[in-house]
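Example: TetR family transcriptional regulator.
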Amino acid sequence: MTAATTPKGERRRAALVEAAAKLLVEGGFDAIRHRAVAERAGLPLASTTYYFDSLEELVTAAVEHHSNAELAAGRRRLEELATRNRGVQATVDLVLEMLLGPETDDAEADAEAVLLRYERLVATGRRPYLRPLMRTLSAQLDELLTEIFARSGTPVSADELERLVALVDGAVVNALIAIDPAPRAAASRMLQNALDGT
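Written out as structure tokens, the predicted fold is:
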């Protein structure tokens, strides 16, 4: 048994992954550096290279950790949706939470978080090592979104789901280009209109 597979080693590795995931959300891929991750985790600098063969491996673990946490939160929210209000707005809110991240009370901070999320998504394309993971995570997200729509009484085909996600992405990007302080609201309007059939 190596030190990396002991309970203490597993805790340290998990702390590094969680620290890297937080840095990813706060500052994108460029924020994940060995020193920054170690400092955030409260561990020695050498621990990042001890537990991870490369920075790419650490970045991949951070992306997977963050995405899995979001998917798990979405599944929990879906269970709530099944027992509470299943109206169009509740569906829109949950879909946007999965696509844009959880909404914050501060409109400016929420818009910044959405911008950072889209910057991360675009930057993923410049990292070929992430492509296999992103394909897997994308398929899992599509499954969850399909289930959200089905349980909300609005089942969608794979093509319809792709169109709705593209509609949200387009609304967000247009809002960000126009320096709209509320890209989530723009996406919500577009998605609500699409689901209402207007």
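The first helix runs from residue 7 to 27.
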